[in-house]
Structure formats: C-alpha cells, structure tokens
Amino acid sequence: MSQHTEPTEQTEPTAEQVEQENSEQKLVRLAKRERLIQAATTPGGGAYPVGVPVTDTIPAVRARFGDLEADAVTGVTVGVAGRVVFLRNTGKLCFASLQAGDGSRIQAMVSLAAVGVDSLAAWKDLVDLGDHLFVAGEVISSRRGELSIMVTEWQVAAKALLPLPNLHSELSEETRVRSRYLDLISREQARRSVIQRSQTVASLRKTFTDRNFLEIETPMLQVMHGGASARPFSTHSNAFDTELFLRIAPELFLKRAVVGGIDRVYEINRNFRNEGADSTHSPEFAMLEAYEAYGDYNSIADLTQTLIQNAATAIAGSHVVTWADGTEFDLGGDWDRIGMYDSLSAAVGHTISPETPLAELQELAAKEGVAVEHPIHGKYVEELWEHFVKGGLTRPTFVMDFPVDTSPLVRGHRSVAGVVEKWDLYVRGFELATGYSELVDPVIQRERFIEQANLAAGGDPEAMRLDEEFLRALEYGMPPTGGMGMGIDRLLMALSGLGIRETILFPLVK
User: Fold this and answer.
1) What is the pLDDT of residues 277-286, one digit of tens each?
2) Is 431 annotated as a binding residue?
3) CA within 20 to 30 Å of 132's CA: 86, 92, 296, 389, which one?
4) Is 56 annotated as contributing to ligand binding?
C-alpha cells in the first residue's frame, strides 16, 4: 500500500528570517563585487561602470520585433540594459530575463558557443537576481516563441548587494510604501500609478494652457498661514529670527496675482496640514488651485468638470476609467448639482435652512449621535449633511451653497441669505475639489477675518488669522472671480480607485 503524505503548509518568513537571509546574501554579493572590481578587464567589466554601450531600449526592441514567430532570427544586433528578474543557469546555455523601468522584459540567452568558456563561467559566478546588466547580440525568437537576445557580449552595469523580494508574492502594504523602489520593481500597478499621475498632471496643464491660464509659484514658507481652515506646521527661520508656517493653501497669494492683473492663474504644488492621516488624508499633499477673473462658482465648476474629464481621457482614452480592482467608473456627462440645505432637508424629512435655530440642529445631532466640535450653525449643518447625505452619492456631484459662517473667503449668495456661493465636488464618496465665487469686498472680508479670529480665541485650531497684507491687496480692487482647489492625490484616487498612500509615490510614514 502506498503511503500518502499531506503537503505541509507554506508560511511566510518572519522579518528576522528575511533580515538574516539578506545579510548572508549581502556578504556573498560583496565578494562578487570585489571580484568584479579586481578583474575589470574580464567580461564582467567592473561592478559599477560609468556607462555601458546601449544602442536600444527593451521597449523599443519589443515594439519592433514583438511579432516574431518561434525559432526566428533577424540578423539585427542590439545592445540593451535592464534589471535581472529571472535567472536560470544550466550547463552550456544560461537564461535571464531583463526588465526595463516600464516593466517590459526581454530574454537574454548566453551560450558556450557564442561567448566562450571564460565568459560563460564569469556569468555563472558573478550575475545575480537584481543586477543591472548590459547584453549585446542578435535579436531572435526562442523555440518557445519568446523574444530573446542571443548574447555575444555582456557586462554588469550595477551590482545589486541585496536580493530582490519574491516577485511572485504580493508585497505587504507597509513594505510597498516604505520601500517604494521595491514596489516599482515588482508590481505593475505601482509603475502604472506613476505613469498615470504624470499623464494626469500633464493633462491638467494642457487644459489650463488651452484656456489661457498662467502657472505661477507662490511661497511655501509663510509668515501667516491662511487660505483654508486647517492646522499648520510651524518652523523657525534663523535668518529672520521669526516663526514661519508651511503653507496650508496658496489661495491668498494667487488672489494677490489676480489683483495684479493676472486674470487667469493656477498653481500645482505642495500643501502641508498638521492633521490626521487616513485613507483620504495625508499631512503633505499636492494641490491644484486656480482663479478666473470675471468667472463665478458656476463657471469654475464647468472648468473643474472639464479638467477631470480631460485627465480621465489622458489615462484611459475615454471618460470611463477602470479602477485597480477592475471596477469601471463613468466620469462622463454633465454632473449633478444639488443644494446642501435642500438635500439635507429631503434626507431628514423637514426643512432645514439658514434660519433653523441652533438648538434644533443640536437636538437633531444628539439624536443621530453626530458630534460637532465647534457649536456654530454651519458646523452642525455640514456634519449633519455628511451623516445623512454624503454616503448616498454615487455619481460625481457638486454640492452647492454652504453656510456662511464656515466659509470666510466666499462671496455671499446672490439670492439666498445666510449661504455662500461655494460647492464641494464629491467623487467616489469623498470630497475631491471645492469652488467659490470669491469674496472680493475688503470690508466684508475684514469682518469675516475678525469672526475667524474670535473662533481661534475660543479654541478653534483651524480658524484663520486676520491677514492685513492680504486685505491691503484687496483694497486695490479685485475683479469678480471664480476659484477652485483640488487635491492631485485625491484626483488620482478618483481615476484609479486606489487609496491616497498608493497615489503618492513616497508618502510620509512613521
């Protein structure tokens, strides 16, 4: 009777086991590095040469010869370089897969007949997974139809001292964000995210350029933080012996540019907010802000929709994007516009308006278990709206007309008292962008700043400070203006379906 043995369960190695294995491999690879350096005239050619004679890229060779039939030869010689991601050494014929930065691969075949005894022995002795390698030879197709280079010459372009992770196993999220270089080597989605981000930002700039907007840069170190309700990071300038703040928004400087006559202006740059970090928030993030003189919150909403739809087309070829999990999300058409007070009233079953007493809002919040840190009318309306309405939004939606006491930089509504001409754009259930009819009256703006200062004195760490320099600029006259702000990282979340730490190439981690 034959004996049946149950297969043993494979377990992931511990961090200590991985570190031990890496240390042992590093010693072996350091010895190979030394041999490469000492024998720089051998086919290995050194461990870190200043350059190698590349004539083609792996993607270009694949594009040109990707349709070769099995066992075909081309008579064309190329020299390419890439990272070794697969290696198999047999007797007289060795194989390696070289990977380019975009993830494309080509097979290198090293035979005794083509390179000779010494070169083949050096290959087996010195080449490891993870090494950057240059190979030259004829482009062929193997008997299995794999595009290959029959190597006649090779050289180590950069010796890897640590082994690659298992390319057939998924890296943990913690490893992906802490060691993004390994993530980029091993995971197609990581490389795709970088490409999509670049394509998205290029699309945004093109859309603005086509509409005669100018891109400018504003200070990141500021003597006074403003332009948003957020907690700032602070630092100290030795040169000026003063406290400075990392900017929370570029708004007040971009508006100065509009005062100065730059009627259509935008900036894509970094903002810093000393607040929590979660799946939709990062303390450091990329931000787009734009201002259009003689526009309002309706025209800037139209522009924002166009910006996002053009970005979708840039990465997906249409307004329908495919998220990382395979879900298709349609960003096309004209997006819904709903009123904050109207949608909240419909959700609770009775009218809530700017005149609704604070006590009534507090009673409703207590009944629903909605906590509001700062007890003012606008805070209760916004928190209750998120509780009742936000979760039901599926399509991209502009939520219009916010409470006046939570929007100190926004023009009052032209026909409805107690609200301002502000919208928030919700996509995928999170806030993606915000837009205003900008407040340009310096007298009212001063009153709003004073109200914010009172809130700050009462303990609100997100309240704005009174900015005399900005008020002085407004006193020279700012035309009617529409403005918008949008997180670039969140835009990538909407286009890719990923979390914020996946859309930022090098996110902040403890």
Assistant:
1) 776 788 889 9
2) yes
3) 92
4) no
